[in-house]
Design goal:
alpha+beta, 2 domains, five-stranded parallel β-sheet, 21 strands
Length: about 400
């Protein structure tokens, strides 16, 4: 009987174990926590957004993004959905976002763990893997309980995101010991820290906006959605989706458009028409119907005009400056809220160093799945989705489903 060790009983580790275990394959799932899927329980604000119907590859990011189409295939996507249906998950689908109909993340975690136990997966909880190496064609897994020997090793340790859930980056250390390259790891899906004396004045405001990100003045990307303005900077899903670009050694600027339903060619006529309709009212009255009160006060202060002034009383240059501040509010990014606050990380084990079955090209029978790889996704179920897809891919290979391997997984 082949013995398989999986380090990490999170989303990818559970899925891999379920698909690997058989009458000829024994699976031991190691985790330093006292139960499995600790991070699953906090996803989607405790509701677990486990999938998204729109699997466009633009929602996934990697330094080797050209390889993603050979891993995230239509076939493996169908297998994820078929699996969850097979264990009794009824999806509640909202705009393509999949949640369990129970609306509880614990439903996903419990069903995964119960399925694994039912199939005979051996759980080694509260067991920290201290070291692992290869000896005489077997993998030695050293824990606080001693040593065990295995034929195959799967590293499913997650990233450095949310270390309170047990993700402390151990997998990167193990991978490097086996000779793998680690693409620099950075917080992703995280709040951004910005400069500005106005931050305390706008704290607590939520506003629909289009946010554009620039690196050293060069446009990178933009997102539209609700932005949360805070006393440290900005948050919200659209901010999270831009955060994977932020590295430690470059300068970034945000330009926030607080009237995303308008474009530059129409905003001037919109303001003049509004002035005709409302008459000579104060700028506070003029703007409060379209902008939150605290935000408009910040904007007026930055432009340097009184809230008692009227739009028509402003010079044409001040009118243009006001409109520009509303449509392209500039904010300098100082960094992110860090690993403690992020949901996932960008970077990880270099994707070009693993095969399409996610087996190491350097060490036979060594596999990497989930967040430890250099793959991260946007908000909306993409990171859990990749965890489940990668877990299935490796699990089926370990079970011996050679005809079902990901090298032919493009149906």
């Amino acid at each position: 009987m082949r013995k398989v060790a999986i380090i990490g009983a999170g989303a990818s580790g559970l899925m891999c174990a379920i698909h690997a275990v058989s009458s000829t394959v024994q699976v031991v799932l190691f985790d330093k926590n006292s139960f499995s899927g600790k991070k699953i329980l906090v996803t989607g604000n405790g509701r677990c957004n486990y999938w998204n119907s729109n699997q466009d590859l633009k929602f996934y990011h990697s330094s080797d993004s050209y390889l993603l189409s050979d891993i995230i295939t239509p076939r493996i996507q169908k297998e994820v959905l078929a699996f969850f249906e097979s264990i009794g998950v009824v999806p509640n689908i909202r705009d393509g976002y999949y949640y369990p109909y129970s609306n509880q993340a614990s439903s996903i975690r419990d069903l995964l763990e119960n399925k694994a136990k039912e199939l005979g997966v051996i759980f080694a909880f509260q067991t920290e893997v201290l070291d692992t190496f290869k000896e005489n064609n077997q993998f030695v897994v050293c824990t606080n309980d001693g040593r065990e020997y295995f034929d195959d090793l799967v590293i499913a340790t997650g990233s450095k995101a949310s270390p309170k859930t047990g993700s402390t980056g151990d997998g990167y250390t193990f991978a490097e010991k086996f000779g793998h390259t680690i693409v620099p790891v950075r917080p992703s899906l995280v709040q951004l820290v910005t400069d500005g004396k106005f931050l305390k004045d706008w704290a607590g405001v939520r506003s629909q906006a289009t946010v554009s990100l620039y690196e050293d003045g060069k446009f990178l990307d933009q997102e539209t959605g609700e932005v949360q303005l805070t006393d440290y900077g900005v948050s919200g899903i659209c901010i999270f989706n831009l955060s994977h670009y932020i590295s430690f050694d470059k300068k970034y600027t945000l330009k926030i458009c607080f009237l995303p339903f308008l474009d530059k060619s129409s905003v001037i006529s919109f303001f003049h028409k509004r002035n005709e309709d409302l008459g000579d009212v104060s700028l506070t009255y003029f703007l409060e119907g379209i902008l939150p009160f605290k935000l408009l006060q910040v904007i007026l202060k930055r432009v340097g005009v009184s809230h008692h002034a009227t739009f028509s009383s402003l010079s044409s240059s001040k009118q243009e400056e006001l409109i520009s501040m509303i449509m392209e509010f500039p904010v300098t990014v100082l960094g992110t809220k860090g690993f403690d606050s992020c949901q996932v990380c960008s970077g990880g084990v270099c994707l070009s160093e693993v095969s399409l079955t996610l087996e190491s090209k350097l060490v036979p029978h060594l596999y990497f799945i989930g967040e430890v790889l250099d793959v991260d996704g946007n908000c909306g179920g993409y990171n859990l989705g990749f965890a489940f897809m990668s877990g299935i891919i490796v699990g089926k290979v370990l079970r011996g489903d050679k005809n079902d391997s990901n090298s032919s997984n493009k149906d």
